[in-house]
Write a structure and sequence with these properties.
The protein is of the alpha+beta class. It has two domains: 167 residues, 3-Layer(aba) Sandwich (Aminopeptidase), CATH 3.40.630; 167 residues, Gcn5-related N-acetyltransferase (GNAT) (Aminopeptidase, 3-Layer(aba) Sandwich), CATH 3.40.630.30. A hairpin with a 2-residue loop joins β9 and β10. α2 packs antiparallel against α8, α3 crosses α4 and α6 runs antiparallel to α8.
């Protein structure tokens, strides 16, 4: 058996070649991409701790695992913890691991965290893909260590594959077809998804403008409302596009963009990171139309076997995709003894969950039954 070692550091190390070899054989997570981690680290979005697992052979070492966690405080006076996803605007926390030695690599990750004196021993994992091979490996490794584990939440996320594709019949399909025909009657419509870096950068500016003009802009949550967020997002998309890992699809009417979908790619997986539309055309559900058409195009072009919605709250993709994946939030203490810090974080998380539940109940009371069109055209 080959020895596995784990190094812990910042994302500055150049592992592009080793990453490419790993992702060719391992299940993907684009949010662990080294280029994305470097951008997030440079932007000061998070104190990212990059765990690299290496398998040592007789002649060379091979990268067999990548897991990025952020060191953070819930509040200044509370204990620190390690958390994933590793930075803002990332939506999966699973490590990328060689499938032949998943259990050994996951165990080595936790051993390394336990040995590192400078790292917190409390780990919070949000949006953990419960269907990925790494999930049972994580749970088994925590059990073997005698770690205290608390499941915080479990939810279903829209997901689509070639076999379990978009809805092919029913009222949703009929509605999408009607909206497409009505929009087509206004002029010439087409979809452009140019994946060259310069084209992606230009199209992303279109996305930013559409998002800023939407309800997100008026509420101050659009990317352009925060200079730091906008700079991060531009660099994030540009650097991923340099490796053909990002694009921005545009739905155009007579050359005018009426919807934009930001897509990420890793291995054979695509990710619908962000979607925005022109509010002037909201009655045609342009955001949903673009997602629906791009789903068909990505599968038809080849190279993509599944698409992840990046939609933790469900959203309009529940209406157009049949597939679901369970995402799990959990909290674990991998230290030798259960700490007071773990109890404090548990109390904080439970309090936050109660407030979130109250907010959702209040939101549901004001929900209008006529808002189906808004749900299907919503800008994420």
């Amino acid at each position: 058996m080959h020895k596995i070692s784990v190094s812990i550091g910042s994302p500055e190390m150049d592992i592009a070649e080793q990453w490419a070899a790993l992702i060719a054989r391992a299940p993907a997570n684009v949010f662990m991409h080294p280029a994305a981690l470097k951008v997030a680290d440079a932007a000061g979005f998070a104190d990212i701790q990059m765990l690299l697992a290496w398998q040592h052979g007789e002649l060379q070492q091979q990268l067999v695992g990548v897991w990025a966690l952020q060191r953070m405080h819930i509040s200044p006076l509370w204990p620190s913890l390690l958390s994933a996803p590793p930075y803002k605007y990332s939506f999966l926390s699973n490590p990328v691991v060689d499938p032949k030695i998943t259990a050994a690599v996951i165990a080595a990750f936790f051993d390394a965290i336990d040995r590192a004196r400078s790292l917190p021993k409390i780990i919070r994992l949000k949006y953990l893909d419960g269907s990925a091979e790494t999930y049972p490996a994580i749970m088994n490794a925590l059990t073997a260590r005698g770690a205290r584990v608390l499941k915080l939440a479990e939810r279903e996320r829209p997901y689509v594959t070639k076999d379990l594709g978009p809805k092919k019949s029913g009222s949703t399909r009929k509605k999408l077809r009607q909206d497409w025909n009505r929009l087509s009657a206004l002029g010439t419509i087409d979809i452009v998804n140019d994946r060259t870096r310069a084209a992606v950068q230009d199209a992303f500016e279109t996305y930013l403008a559409l998002e800023a003009a939407s309800w997100k802009g008026s509420r101050g949550t659009a990317l352009l409302c925060d200079e730091k967020d906008a700079t991060f997002a531009r660099n994030f998309i540009s650097d991923l596009a340099a490796g053909d890992n990002a694009s921005v699809a545009l739905l155009r009417l007579d050359g005018r963009a009426v919807a934009a979908q930001v897509l990420l790619y890793c291995g054979t997986m695509a990710y619908t990171w962000k979607t925005a539309f022109d509010v002037e055309f909201s009655k045609f559900s342009p955001g949903a139309l673009l997602v629906d058409k791009m789903t068909e195009l990505l599968f038809a072009e080849g190279g993509v076997d599944a698409i992840e919605s990046c939609s933790p709250e469900g959203g309009f993709m529940n209406q157009i995709w049949d597939g679901r994946r369970t995402t799990i939030d959990l909290l674990a203490d991998v230290g030798a003894k259960t700490s007071l810090g773990f109890r404090a974080v548990v109390a904080s998380e439970r309090g936050y969950a109660q407030l979130r539940g109250l907010r959702n109940r209040l939101r549901d009371r004001s929900w209008s039954p006529r808002a189906w069109r808004k749900r299907i055209a919503i800008s994420r």
